[in-house]
Amino acid sequence: MTKSGYPYPPDEFDVAVPGGAPVGVHRAPRSGWSSAWPFLLVAVVCAAVAWGGITLLSGDGEPAEASGDPSSSASAPASPSASASGEASGEPSGEPSGEPSAETGGPADPAALKAGADLTAQVAVYNVGQEAGLAGETAEYLMGQDVAGAALREEPQTPDGATYTENTILYGADRAETAAYTAALLGIPEANMVESAAVSSSPEAVWVVVVTRPSTMG
Predict the structure, then answer these.
(1) d(CA 43, CA 52)
(2) CA 101 → CA 21, 106, 107, 193, distances in Å?
(3) How far is CA 76 from the centre of its chain?
(4) Are 123 and 180 in contact (CB under 8 A)?
(5) Fewer CB within a 10 Å sphere, N or C end of the chain?
(6) What whole-number distance in Å separates Cα of residue 158 and Cα of residue 207?
(7) Which pLDDT belongs to residue 90?
(8) C-alpha–C-alpha distance, residues 133 and 150, integer Å
(9) Of 214, 147, 150, 218, whose CA–CA distance to 187 is shortest?
(10) Strands 123-127 and 193-195
């Protein structure tokens, strides 16, 4: 640089040295912006990094929640199947177990019914089956069980004109206890006991209709 192109006034640094070069070199003063912009740049970069990290973390959390919802919704339908299996294994097995016994109505214990029966009431025995002499045997069996009014009727049909395919007890009004005792003696189920107007209008209290040999008679 020539002396005519040197823009600064002479000072103590402009001491000539061998070779003609000055000892010091003048520099233009630095502005405040030139010293502040590196810090601003660092702040912006840090803010951008922090925002990116938060966004990334929040993005990872949302899929986790989304993945959790389907698992809960998928596991929810399992409860109806459990309840359904509970209904299928519990309720049906309990209810039917009691109903068949009520429907079949097996014969009761004669000893428990004897006290309420009228042992002097007339009991007519009708043999409508194929075994000859069954009415007489049945009447004798009943008399042996203290049913004093038992009498045989060797007739192919009862006076009411109905057809019977099973051993049956027909009884008149207010004769249910006597009928129940007679049925228990012959092993006739309660389901085959029928209150009959025809019996009520007859001299007898109970009609015993035998089709086959009663189980208690052997």
Answers:
(1) 14
(2) 130, 7, 11, 16
(3) 16
(4) no
(5) C
(6) 9
(7) 47
(8) 15
(9) 214
(10) unpaired
What is the sign, positive or negative, of the torsion defined by CA atoms of 40, 46, 49, 52?
negative
10-residue mean pLDDT series, the chain (218 residues): 61 60 55 70 84 77 48 48 46 41 56 91 94 93 92 87 94 95 94 95 95 92
The confidence score (pLDDT) of residue 50 equals: 83
- How open is the CA angle 109-111-112, to the nearest 5 degrees? 70
In the three-class reduction of DSSP (H, G, I as helix; E, B as strand; rest coil), residue 17 is classed as coil
- Residue 20's region, left for phi above 0, alpha for psi from -120 to 50, else beta, is left
Q: Which residues contact 110 (CB under 8 A, 6 or more apart)?
A: 145, 181, 184, 185
Is beta strand 168-171 parallel, antiparallel or unpaired with respect to 206-210?
antiparallel
d(CA 118, CA 148): 10
- Per the CB < 8 A criterion, the answer to whether 134 and 106 are in contact is no
pLDDT at 22: 55
- How far apart (Å, rounded) are the C-alpha atoms in residues 91 and 102? 18
Token output for 11: 């000072």
Q: What is the pLDDT of residue 31?
A: 64
Q: In the chain, count H helices and then E strands.
A: 6, 5
